[in-house]
Task: inverse folding
């Protein structure tokens, strides 16, 4: 990314509702966006996805990736777009083989030793990142100024779990065991991911991302000592460096499953916002977390998929619990593929109409 690039994009002159809330303001009703708001539940996504060929081709096509980033914004009255890409772009750009298989999710060539790490051919990283930054720039220039653009990466721990196991698993046992067996390897892998994630997020910001979110989907699998070492310390390093380079850009952390450690995660990493999973109690979000950071979440994506009267009741419960606090309405995890798009319309209407 050229240093002059930052002046070229269309950064909003009016702070968006999302940026206002992330700076600590209270807005009623709160801004809303949804994790995985672009994806297979939208017929227009499936059409572009089929045209792209593979999922990775879609991620690396600035034209098609910006189109699918904008699809949910055209269809629903959301406050923010999130860059369309994947957390596994980082290992792929670093040279790890990756494919997405239908029904099985991501498959990578596992990396479990320092020799495997040394063998990675990262000569394409700049070229691959540049395609993602180009998507960010295209989306920012197409998006109206009151809508925020969210960039993202996977947190080092979560990305490492896929790199080590070569696939997703329910408990991330392969990476947890390797962290005990060979902490020097895990340290080297996490260090590489910290440095690469800083470059990646910084490039997204330079290209026009207004906010960034760090997805640590597998944070909740760790013992507390391991949580400090592999979740909090690397995230703090990323946050500190991004704050040094881009002090005005808010950072949201999503340490899924952090539970009782969520407060220390906020205090010790320095994130501006925390995205809470569905199991996180609303009362704890209000009483313990909201004084420390803007809180986001935690509607159950399965309730959104089901819809019906319970959806409206739960929206009111969430809005009621967090009234008077800086709050971003969101799900506790990503939209599931069989969610009827009309339920998303209904959700946005419920949040916008609320009197909380
Ligand atoms: O939120 C958005 O709309 C932005 C795009 C986005 C995707 N993945 C697109 C995607 C984001 C932010 C992600 C993050 C991501 N990717 C995470 C962290 C959040 C979470 O869900 O826990 C993780 C763990 C991944 C890794 C990943 N990517 C898996 C496990 C899978 C397979 C499961 C699945 O849903 O297919 C993917 C593929 C993927 N990433 C798809 C999309 C739209 C589906 C691919 C397709 O269209 O065939």
Result:
């Amino acid at each position: 990314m050229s240093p002059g690039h930052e002046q070229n994009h269309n950064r909003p002159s009016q702070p968006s509702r999302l940026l206002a809330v992330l700076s600590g303001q209270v807005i009623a009703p709160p801004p809303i966006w949804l994790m995985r708001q672009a994806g297979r539940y939208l017929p227009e996504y499936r059409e572009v996805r089929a045209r792209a060929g593979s999922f990775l081709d879609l991620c690396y096509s600035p034209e098609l990736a910006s189109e699918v980033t904008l699809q949910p914004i055209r269809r629903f009255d959301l406050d923010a777009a999130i860059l369309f890409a994947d957390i596994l772009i980082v290992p792929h750009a670093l040279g790890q083989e990756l494919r997405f298989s239908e029904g099985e999710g991501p498959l990578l060539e596992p990396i479990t030793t320092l020799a495997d790490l040394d063998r990675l051919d990262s000569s394409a990283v700049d070229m691959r990142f540049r395609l993602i930054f180009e998507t960010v720039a295209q989306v920012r220039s197409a998006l109206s100024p009151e809508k925020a653009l969210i960039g993202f990466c996977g947190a080092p721990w979560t990305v490492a779990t896929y790199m080590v196991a070569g696939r997703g698993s329910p408990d991330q046992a392969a990476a947890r065991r390797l962290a005990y067996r060979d902490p020097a390897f895990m340290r080297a892998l996490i260090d590489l991911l910290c440095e690469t994630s800083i470059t990646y997020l910084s490039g997204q910001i330079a290209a026009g991302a207004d906010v960034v979110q760090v997805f640590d989907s597998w944070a909740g699998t760790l013992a507390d000592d391991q949580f400090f070492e592999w979740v909090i310390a690397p995230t703090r390093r990323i946050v500190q460096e991004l704050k040094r380079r881009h002090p005005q850009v808010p950072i949201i952390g999503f340490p899924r499953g952090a539970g009782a450690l969520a407060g220390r995660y906020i205090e010790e990493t320095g994130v501006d916002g925390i995205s809470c999973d569905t199991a996180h109690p609303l009362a704890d979000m209000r009483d313990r977390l909201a004084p420390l950071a803007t809180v986001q979440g935690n509607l159950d994506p399965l309730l959104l998929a089901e819809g019906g009267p319970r959806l409206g009741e739960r929206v009111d419960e969430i809005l009621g619990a967090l009234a008077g606090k800086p709050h971003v309405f969101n799900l506790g995890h990503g939209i599931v593929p069989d969610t009827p798009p009309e339920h998303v319309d209904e959700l946005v209407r419920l949040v916008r109409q609320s009197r909380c």
